[in-house]
């Protein structure tokens, strides 16, 4: 083989090989409604506030998870509405790329249902989260009908979670309950206390100061 032929052959091989970029952007569509957006932000805000002193988790919403075994962005990806990965670095990411994250998949996934996505969330996605992601805790919630369900992975299959007396479902991975409060999905502690947003916590503190005849605006 001549030098020219050898170079051409190498060039052809290089063109066939796909080297995934090191920084993949999320590829998720726009959210269904404003209510979906508010629900995702609420979950994210509450968990990050509760775990504000922790640096060993990653939480995000409507973000692509790339999980191709051949490390190709175009091959396999899903975008849960909300998910949490434990045992990882807490930092901003453009997407979650499994092969760049020590093979880690989400520990918890929450899907926000809509008429357009409900069937996929309850069937196809549930199967993928069970069989491929092996995500221990999976929940779905419909902000319109208030349908709420949760599952825990047991012996390789999702088993329905039983609600407590308040209708809340326990997440072993988060060590928290999830339940409906004023029409939205919220986190609750093991003692049943609502996990606050930073704004709710500030207002609660302000109310206590007023009870002590202290004007919070003067502090």
Automatic annotation (TrEMBL):
Which InterPro entries is this protein grouped with?
Nuclease_put_TT1808, Restrct_endonuc-II-like, Uma2
Q: Which residue numbers delimit the Putative restriction endonuclease domain?
A: 34-176
Q: Name one Pfam family in it.
A: Uma2
GO MF terms, alphabetically ordered: endonuclease activity
Sorted keywords for this record are: Endonuclease, Hydrolase, Nuclease
Instruction: Classify the source by domain of life.
Output: Bacteria
Q: What is this protein called?
A: Uma2 family endonuclease
């Amino acid at each position: 083989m001549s030098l020219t032929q050898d170079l051409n052959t190498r060039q052809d091989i290089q063109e066939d090989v796909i080297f995934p970029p090191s920084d993949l952007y999320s590829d998720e569509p726009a959210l269904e409604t404003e209510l979906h957006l508010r629900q995702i932000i609420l979950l994210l805000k509450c968990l990050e506030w509760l775990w504000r002193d922790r640096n060993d988790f990653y939480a995000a919403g409507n973000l692509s998870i790339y999980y191709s075994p051949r490390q190709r962005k175009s091959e396999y990806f899903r975008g849960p509405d909300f998910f949490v990965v434990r045992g990882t670095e807490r930092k901003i990411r453009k997407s979650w790329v499994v092969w760049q994250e020590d093979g880690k998949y989400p520990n918890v996934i929450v899907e926000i249902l809509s008429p357009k996505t409900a069937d996929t969330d309850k069937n196809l996605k549930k199967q993928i989260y069970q069989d491929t992601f092996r995500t221990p805790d999976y929940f779905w919630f419909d902000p319109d009908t208030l349908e709420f369900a949760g599952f825990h992975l047991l012996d390789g299959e999702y088993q329905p979670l039983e609600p407590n007396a308040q209708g809340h479902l326990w997440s072993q991975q988060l060590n928290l309950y999830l339940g409906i409060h004023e029409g939205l999905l919220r986190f609750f502690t093991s003692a049943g206390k609502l996990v606050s947003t930073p704004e709710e916590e500030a207002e609660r503190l302000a109310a206590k100061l007023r009870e002590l005849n202290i004007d919070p605006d003067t502090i």
